[in-house]
Amino acid sequence: xxxxxxxxxxxxxxxxxxxxxxxxxxxxxxxxxxxxxxxxxxxxxxxxxxxxxxxxxxxxxxxxxxxxxxxxxxxxxxxxxxxxxxxxxxxxxxxxxxxxxxxxxxxxxxxxxxxxxxxxxxxxxxxxxxxxxxxxxxxxxxxxxxxxxxxxxxxxxxxxxxxxxxxxxxxxxxxxxxxxxxxxxxxxxxxxxxxxxxxxxxxxxxxxxxxxxxxxxxxxxxxxxxxxxxxxxxxxxxxxxxxxxxxxxxxxxxxxxxxxxxxxxxxxxxxxxxxxxxxxxxxxxxxxxxxxxxxxx
Length: 297
Prior knowledge:
- By secondary structure, the protein is mainly β.
- It folds into two domains: 7-150, Immunoglobulin-like (Sandwich); 153-288, Immunoglobulin-like, CATH 2.60.40.
- The chain is built from two helices and 22 strands.
- It has helices at 7-22, 74-78; strands at 32-40, 54-60, 65-71, 82-84, 87-95, 101-102, 115-117, 128-136, 141-150, 153-160, 167-173, 178-184, 190-193, 201-202, 206-207, 212-214, 218-220, 230-237, 243-250, 258-264, 271-278, 283-288.
- Strands 10, 11, 14, 15, 16, 17, 18, 19, 20, 21 and 22 form an eleven-stranded mixed sheet that branches. It has a seven-stranded mixed sheet with strand order 3-2-5-8-9-1-4.
- β21 (271-278) and β22 (283-288) form a beta hairpin.
């Protein structure tokens, strides 16, 4: 990786290192010291996300809260030193976690920390989180690199070959009410969606343009932790006023994932199942019958 690609983490690490070196050597009666630097798990976020409000929760090995901290920026966080007794800890970092997101300022235990939305339809700018298992040793300092990822999922739809004047309203179901950042999912990754489901989430109505209907990107909570599918209802209004309805079963959405449903108007049926294919580490395409369409066409 080049310095340009990693300027965010390099700057944070550099500032933390300067701060640590300026404090001289550790004394034997001091506890271990930890500083936290942030980096983006999805490198595409570097050009899209501006880091502002930063929060940190520290839990001990038993899951109890040791302390919570708030900073105005990643550089301010990197300058902090957290003195802790030797042992194992869980560090949970959150960035841009502001309204309309909801959270517990001082959760009693790590398992209870949850990030939600005041309004499931808000589609706000992204908040990101990172979780690190940290071992603190007596009289030793360390810098923890917290790779932050998005709390919300992203979903967009693209229908090609649509008749002139056609419009589509899409509604999504099976979305979670929040994400537990300190709980692991079935793949062993931190960030488990709740089993509790919110009400349906509806996209703004999208209209045909040049034979293509494209919805804006909707930022929403991932599918519930127990969900085996994302359920999408489409109401397609033709120029004469007739409405065609379509129910689509798609794979479940995960925190931080980006999902793009591409299909042809001629493929639409009353009930459909779409299948995933990998675009990159963070983006998944959904298509009919496994046929991969180019979402850029």
